[in-house]
Amino acid sequence: MSGRVTVIGLGPGDSRLLTEAASEALARAEDLIGYIPYVARVPEREGLRRHASDNRVEVDRARHALELAASGRRVAVVSGGDPGVFAMAAALFEAVERGDPAWARLDIVIEPGITAMLAAAARVGAPLGGDFCALSLSDNLKPWEVVTARLEAVLRADFVVALYNPISSARPWQLGAALELAAGIRPQETPVIFARAVTRPDESIRVLTLAQAREAPADMATLVILGASGTRLIPRGEGVSPFVYTSRSVARGAA
Amino acid sequence: MSGRVTVIGLGPGDSRLLTEAASEALARAEDLIGYIPYVARVPEREGLRRHASDNRVEVDRARHALELAASGRRVAVVSGGDPGVFAMAAALFEAVERGDPAWARLDIVIEPGITAMLAAAARVGAPLGGDFCALSLSDNLKPWEVVTARLEAVLRADFVVALYNPISSARPWQLGAALELAAGIRPQETPVIFARAVTRPDESIRVLTLAQAREAPADMATLVILGASGTRLIPRGEGVSPFVYTSRSVARGAA
Question: Taking CA A153 as the corner, what is the angle to CA A148 and CA A159, rounded to the nearest 5 degrees?
């Protein structure tokens, strides 16, 4: 088999945040597979067949990519952010494991990208400057009790926490519940960042307190970063959002 | 003040993993500041002053960058991986907070990069496919008891864990202690990845079991990923390293 699947991280939105390796892999592809808005980010060109699909069909999409590659095509599966972080790469390997045994011998390459928490953090300063976790609030694939047990564990251990998939029309209350849990463990003035559509034309970034965050709107395009005890604000003057960073140092007895 | 500091993520090593935005920021810089091997990655050019410094002087380096920017220079501070993940961005904001109040009004931009855990994960499959944490094993800036308390918390909550700064000549035993702690909580056959110098000419990536990892050598350039209960191997045939991925799904009662 001469086909190949490359799973490509498109980063948060701005094409200037693609790596050169990701751009090269897109240029070499014959078939382009992905969720509609990600496929739409890739310019049309001669010789590139486009297969855009709706959300929530990750494993079907992965199987389609593997079938095309097994037939000899050079396939690019596009993913927002980094493909390995709550995105297409794990779905692809699930399909490999459950599918045609020959698929495990295909040439499968993952091209990393700038995941949302890195892009959001860069926009406000360095809130991930200490130890941190990435936790998906979606309970589509794991029980909600697992989500809350994990969140409570890392809040108590004083990690900064990036919350992916905080809310959707089908999951309207999970973010509120998570922030309520956080408010029982962390001070009300803890910095919380709501970073929406980072680097895209409709970007909106808010630096809030935990108390304010509990009243603030969010949507599917929002990434939430909950600060830890070492997360601090540096005021920058009137009308300018403060820098937010987490100190690298932890005092003795702080944990 | 017309100066600017841009803290630039160079990614894991291969220049093809820089973002276009990072490359552009390097091209605009007048002064280049950073740890010797990172400065060495940036080609020399006319008009670029190079200020390479030894490791462990992050805050001095940050102050130097801020002073130059305050005098009107366009300064690039270069960092391996992503500047916001155990790298220069937090040190820069520490210097801003403690330094000349005018520094908080400087134009400070963070250009994100591919951090080591994303690059390492991409090389083997999708081991960060579920919830995960990034934890520095260095006890230079935090007490060792904080490191172990955090590690134990996230192991018990079944996160995948990326261990940064696992070992150095001054910290020879910490990785062994961390793996011993892990072995008390996770099964001996748990997949563990030792990813050394990812994307660089001397790259070496080993997929081990937790039992094997406890006997395996590591050095400063190694990034360790400890699998969780959902981390699985997909064999690829004789002489080829298996794919490693973490399932997106968590069964009820698994936490």
Answer: 115
